[in-house]
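User: Could you write out the 3D structure of this protein bound to 2-acetamido-2-deoxy-beta-D-glucopyranose? I've included everything you need below.
Assistant: Certainly. Input first, then the structure.
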Amino acid sequence: LGGPYYSFMKEGDIMIGGVFSFHLTLLNDNLSKRYEDYQVAATMMFAIEEINNSSKILPGITLGYKIFDGCGSVRTAVRATMSLMNGLTQKNVLGKSCSTSSNVQAIIGHSGSSSSIGIASTVGPFQIPVISHFATCACLSNKRDYPTFFRTIPSDYHQSRALVQLVKYFGWNWVGAIKTDNEYGNGGMATFVEVAKKEGICIEYLETFSKNSKKEVFLKIINLLQTSTSKVVVAFVTLSDMEFLTNELLLNNVTGVQWIGSESWASTKSLATATNFRVLGGTLGFAISNAVIPGLKEFSLKIRPSDSPGWVEFWENIFGCSLTSQDKTVSACTGFETLRDVNNEFTDFTELRITNNAYKAVYAVAHSLHNLLSCNDGKGPFVLHYVKKVNFTTKTGENVYFDINGDPVARYELVNWQLMKEGNVKYITVGYYDASLTEGAQFVLNNYTIIWAGNKTKVPTSVCSESCPIGTHKAIQKGRPVCCFDCIPCADGEISNTTDSMECLSCPAEYKSNNVKDKCILKEIEFLSFAEIMGIVLVAFSFLGAGVTVAIIAVFFNHKDTPIVRANNSELSFLLLFSLTLCFLCSLTFIGEPSPWSCILRHTAFGITFVLCISCVLGKTIVVLMAFRATLPGSNIMKWFGPMQQRLSVCSFTLIQVTICTLWLSVSPPFPIRNMKYYNDRIILECDLGSVVAFYSVLGYIGCLSILCFVLAFLARKLPDNFNEAKFITFSMLIFCAVWITFIPAYISSPGKYTVAVEIFAILASSFGLLFCIFIPKCYVILFKPEHNTKKHLMGKMPSKSL
Ligand SMILES: *[C@@H]1O[C@H](CO)[C@@H](O)[C@H](O)[C@H]1NC(C)=O
Ligand SMILES: *[C@@H]1O[C@H](CO)[C@@H](O)[C@H](O)[C@H]1NC(C)=O
Ligand SMILES: *[C@@H]1O[C@H](CO)[C@@H](O)[C@H](O)[C@H]1NC(C)=O
Ligand SMILES: *[C@@H]1O[C@H](CO)[C@@H](O)[C@H](O)[C@H]1NC(C)=O
């Protein structure tokens, strides 16, 4: 124990170092073997031999290697690095002026970020380049702390962003997160959380663990996985920690979790077994592109334990035997067993994603050394300078170079763990992420079917609240993350035409929201029109009234010489009938779309014709009162209220109203308006009164006259007159006043076009009241009881009445 374990070595003119983890821990047990890293080491040897054989690159120079085991421990990795740097020597190579200054010119490794940080900090001051094939921590891009660090795998800076894009793409905004407690997990997850927050993704929980964590930590994670509402879990976990967690998952039978894996474990062969598939099946994760390395398979399968002491333990583990005959508990092996029949990560050449990175790293060093030794640009003696500048194309056509931070171009494949018919787990490439493309186009999905956790083909959902449909807006639940919200329907007159909108938009004044609340539509326009039933009925009644009045005029005209017509001033009767006709017709001005003219006309015409009408009735009442006094002996009162005075009074009463109306029109005439205040969903076209005072003056004047008329008629009701006219006038005024008194509350409370209808109704009702009460009894006598229509009958009645 305590290492560093010196594993593989071959002498050469120029030495390249390697630090990998052949053991997960310092404990030497079977579980901790990492055959992936054995494959990476074999690839490094293969690449070096290829370069040695090649006449194009480093001709005449032999490359050698020294490979150490880091044992998954930072301390061991740093000690291995120290050993690699030991024995600094000055020696001229091929007599050229460029010199090499150390035993090892460059180091390949490590697979873990933490160990790579250790290595990079150790060699930094000595200007020795470190090229990692699998250390993804974004922290390593910091060239101030790690000036000699390079890598052939993209930084987690990109991976974290790619994971956010992936989570966002499938609409999961409520995810769990688990990370390893080291630079890799902390750094990667910090970026993920930061970017996810910007994209509106909420993290339900964020748990940290490592393989050395206490049992309770694992139990807590298991419990969270089983009970939390988010079914998608992003795991920024190193491979070795994920292996520990997977064992716990298997023990506790935690299935149905959709894992989103970081590159460290999601594209690593050792985890993707049929057993683990029960808990990790359907895992999605980013992996760097797969590759084919021609010749590697043949090279690797020819390896024998006799090649190097490093292979002995490997061989014994694979074949479960002992090469040294000391251990009697296990069977002995010959060292000539064939690797071809072995099925593990070392002999799997279909997934060479990480391995290819190591291959590229060795070539990057070789090309740099080549450039250095050719003194291509005459710059400094250090390989480091040439590694920064290296730019070459591999045999498989990949362009390799490092950016200013020592990182390669970030391009990932999205892989999905699927169980093949043969019972093995394969990574199926279902999409890719290319950081060099413009934002928004970086994440692309192929049309392969993704198999999700639990062998499902339907995309799982992982949201705290379902997205708000159009017509509603989000209301964040108090004290909870932004992804948990209620959907509140938009109020009337407001819309939201996108899902998940934060608030509803108000429609413009003339618009209202439709039923779904996703569009503003023009409000309906409301006014009492000639085309609707109510309009037609009112027009019909108004024409009926006018027609009846005209008919009565005709009857009276035909019988103008009969006593009943002549009795109480036929001139007033005809004027009254004429004004009643106008009253009926003036109701027509209230129907139809209001225009400036109809607005002016409707109130003034109504006011004037009604005053004309009431003044005629008033005239008649006064005549009855006067006529009674006239019949009293010695009275000459009739000459004070003869036809001349009657005309004059009617004219002056009407003139007052005309004056009020003229003032109204000149100061502030009525005008049409679009009333949007009363209803949210309709626009009422109506006439604004202009001056309310004027309107109530007009009404009030009519009211005063009619009350005066009513009082006088009431006083005269018992008086004997020709044909009980005062009684009928009293009755008609009663109807008139009743109609208009009921009109006021109805007028105030009926909205929109009903206001107008109520007003027309009041006009028609009061006109009909006057018409029927005053004229129908007379017509009845004229037409059906002509025998009563004689002077004698009329006169004969009087004395009997007066008794
Ligand atoms: C490199 O090739 C030379 C002959 O071309 C050989 O002698 C030497 O052993 C080789 N070295 C390696 C590391 O393969
Ligand atoms: C290098 O050359 C030797 C001898 O020519 C050959 O046996 C070996 O397979 C070559 N190695 C590689 C990796 O090409
Ligand atoms: C690397 O070289 C290729 C051509 O060989 C060139 O197209 C590419 O731009 C170079 N890349 C860099 C970063 O210099
Ligand atoms: C949503 O409504 C707004 C404002 O009415 C409009 O500008 C926008 O184009 C609409 N969007 C959609 C998707 O209909």
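The longest helix spans residues 596-631.
User: Perfect, thank you.
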